[in-house]
Amino acid sequence: MLKLKVLTDNNTLIDKYFTAEPGLSFWIESDGKKILFDTGYSDVFIRNAHIMGTDLNGMDVAVLSHGHNDHTWGLCHLVQHFDRTLKTGRQKLIAHPGAFERKRCGDLEIGMTLREDVLGEYFDITKCQSPVRITENLLWLGEIPVKHGARRAIGKTLINGEWIPDACYDDSALVYGSEKGIVIITGCSHSGICNVIDYAMMLTGTTKILDIIGGFHLQNADEETMERTLRGITKAAPETVHPCHCTDLKAKMKLSASLNVEEVGAGLELDYE
């Protein structure tokens, strides 16, 4: 069984009194383990977790979808939370090596701000480009091959002392497999949501998709990109999709014409048998 709680999203739901911000954080329970997937931009995920009765000190693994600020800056607040609650012991932290590199957009720092050596005081860090099995049924995809479209650079990243266009090779996702099908859990899908879907199906050997939840990176998407993406997702035929975070209203409306689109917001809880 897979349980997922939306701790942080751009939106909240009617009659769900949580705080929203332009970021993403999920709490996942699978095969007896508890996983924190991204940490949003601030301490919002901590406050919402408390309201939802979720003890962040009980996590077994933290996973970063990629290194952008709206997915990693909450780490600063998480280690403060550990200090305030006198938490002892260390969990695993899994991420692509590129997630720890500096990132800029213009003059703005948009990458992880907490230094790796500081994170190492709280986590056993696994930097890996290859897939990593987190639980029996939950897999981190690692670096995602691009077959559809092309990687679009977002700002620049510092590699070997040189600022180069950042093609977001650190972007990754999770896939949960069951006898009924798979659930794909994304952060921002900078690799392209169709590429994420294809790679998840290839690694699991499963074509039956129960749900896709997370950012689809469809914000102000041009018509060609939107149509190509819609064709790809429709071909994959997921039973349900939960696009959120970096998926704007126009894209959700387009997707809903062909797919079963469900609303997402902070406070949402989903159970998959």
Task: Please name the defining characteristics of this protein.
single chain; 273 residues; alpha/beta; Metallo-beta-lactamase, Chain A; seven-stranded mixed sheet; six-stranded mixed sheet; 7 helices; 17 strands; 28% strand
Report a brief summary of the structure.
With 273 residues, the chain is of the alpha/beta class.
What would your notes on this structure say?
This protein has 273 residues and is α/β, with parallel strands linked by helices. It has a single domain (2-272), classed as Ribonuclease Z/Hydroxyacylglutathione hydrolase-like (Metallo-beta-lactamase, Chain A). The protein is 22% helix and 28% strand. It has helices spanning 44-51, 69-72, 74-84, 116-119, 193-204, 223-236, 249-256, and strands at 2-8, 25-30, 33-37, 61-63, 91-95, 103-105, 108-109, 123-127, 132-133, 138-140, 156-159, 162-165, 173-178, 181-186, 209-215, 240-244, 269-272. Strand 11 and strand 12 (162-165) form a beta hairpin.
